[in-house]
């Protein structure tokens, strides 16, 4: 992909180019359905299962696009990022495939399973406090020391374009979708959905799903400008980060609505999906189903693509244990 300053300059040709670049390094993930969940919601739900993706999360798409788009000279110094988990391990995976270093700043509270995965892929972790302020301050030191290429977990146009390949696959796999819904934290996946659908299926509604306890995107959407929370507390650990300028461009221009769910609603939806679909998914991935269950009138009678974004779960700390 050619060098770009902002996401506003991205086109669908960039998505096609990204897909060609990353195809050797990703899975074309399956779409699953559940008669039980269709009957429960009154909608036809099509689950795009990025929990089966390489490195266990959709973020390997954007990370791979960034890593394999670097020139040899750029790649020599490696890549660096800050992330609560899935982008960290995805960038470590992609860097490992290319044989270059990967430096990652992670909150000390990040799930142990994700830290273990980062190290397993060869990533070098520096820990920080669980706040956006601490994360960015510690990262500035790591970045200055290494000189590595900064691959932002979601505000990087290369990352957004890579994430857009997920919805491109979904549209190839399922005919006649009326809507697509995905979780929103920083907005990388939603921005990718917007980039794809606004170009090839502009009539498809795009919904974002967010925890009530980390609802800065919801409040930003209603206010018409970015509102950032520094350290929200939610079981959906992948959705704690705020929107940035590139993702806000897509959210403000193309998202139909942002829906929220409580912590208990998220846990219930996660448990329901595990029980009925027999798949491992993270709390962050349960937020879309939780919002569909909470707002059935929005989705009833419609064909809805639901992005399950990842499956990197600490099995020793499932949210319903001890409840």
What is the total tally of β strands? 10
Which CATH-level-2 architecture of the largest domain? 3-Layer(aba) Sandwich
Order of H and E elements = HEHEHHEHEHEHEHEHEHHEHHHE
Strands in their spatial order, largest beta sheet = 1-2-10-7-8-9
Largest sheet: 6 strands, mixed
Summarize model confidence as the mean pLDDT: 94
Helix content: 40-55%
Description:
By secondary structure, the chain is an alpha/beta fold. It folds into 2 domains: 7-57 and 160-317, Rossmann fold (3-Layer(aba) Sandwich), CATH 3.40.50; 60-150, Rossmann fold (3-Layer(aba) Sandwich), CATH 3.40.50.1100. The chain is built from 14 helices and 10 strands. The protein has helices at 12-22, 35-41, 59-68, 72-75, 86-98, 112-120, 132-146, 157-173, 188-200, 216-223, 245-254, 263-277, 283-294, 296-299, and strands at 31-32, 44-49, 79-82, 102-107, 124-128, 149-150, 179-183, 205-211, 257-261, 303-308. The strands form 2 sheets. The protein has a 6-stranded mixed β-sheet with strand order 1-2-10-7-8-9, with helices on both faces. A 4-stranded parallel β-sheet has the order 5-4-3-6, sandwiched between helices. The longest helix is centred in the middle third of the chain and has 17 residues, at 157-173. 55% of the residues are buried. The model has no long low-confidence stretch (mean pLDDT 94).
How do the helices and strands line up, and which of them pair or pack?
Blueprint: H1 12-22, E1 31-32, H2 35-41, E2 44-49, H3 59-68, H4 72-75, E3 79-82, H5 86-98, E4 102-107, H6 112-120, E5 124-128, H7 132-146, E6 149-150, H8 157-173, E7 179-183, H9 188-200, E8 205-211, H10 216-223, H11 245-254, E9 257-261, H12 263-277, H13 283-294, H14 296-299, E10 303-308
Parallel strand pairs: 2-10, 3-4, 3-6, 4-5, 7-8, 7-10, 8-9
Antiparallel strand pairs: 1-2
Helix pairs in contact: 1-3, 1-8, 3-5, 3-8, 5-6, 8-9, 9-11, 12-13
